[in-house]
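Exercise 7b. Backbone tokens:
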């Protein structure tokens, strides 16, 4: 390996190590922060609560939201075919705009579900990565509105 390439790799590795050492904390999967002195402090996580107005949603996603939901479902279900609810399961500025997505299970029986909660309506063609704050929930309790035998919405195939 040429000396100039070794020097560049060494410099890049040193920068990465220094960047790692300068980090004061990181967030773990239980939403706590481990700081440099090894204390764990819980982060405030506001639960998504459905108000009465949100429970009777029924509003429809616009064209940009449908594209965003299709692309999100592709990412969540790793490009497997998917469907989404034809309307928001709940829609309220204070709790978000939730849509159900599902894909046939890899095991061949039933479906895998996800609840995608948009924090605000999508009105622009492009969403910067910093503004992409949609929450994807996949737990059984989180996706309960999607799993009902007689949901208040119809399933539409994602294009």
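Sequence design result:
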């Amino acid at each position: 390996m040429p000396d100039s390439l070794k020097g560049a790799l060494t410099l890049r590795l040193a920068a990465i190590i220094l960047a790692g050492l300068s980090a004061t904390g990181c967030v773990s999967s239980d939403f706590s922060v481990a700081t440099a002195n090894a204390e764990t402090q819980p982060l405030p996580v506001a639960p998504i609560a459905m108000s009465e107005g949100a429970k009777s949603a029924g509003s429809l996603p616009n064209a940009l939201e449908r594209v965003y939901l299709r692309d999100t479902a592709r990412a969540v279900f790793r490009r497997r075919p998917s469907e989404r609810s034809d309307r928001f399961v709940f829609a309220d500025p204070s709790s978000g705009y939730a849509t159900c997505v599902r894909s046939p299970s890899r095991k061949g029986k039933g479906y895998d579900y996800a609840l995608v909660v948009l924090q605000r309506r999508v009105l622009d063609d492009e969403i910067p990565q910093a503004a992409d704050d949609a929450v994807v929930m996949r737990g059984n309790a989180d996706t309960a509105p999607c799993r009902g035998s007689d949901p208040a919405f119809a399933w539409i195939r994602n294009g």
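Instructor comment: The helical segments are 3-22, 52-55, 63-76, 144-147. The two ends are 49 Å apart (CA to CA).
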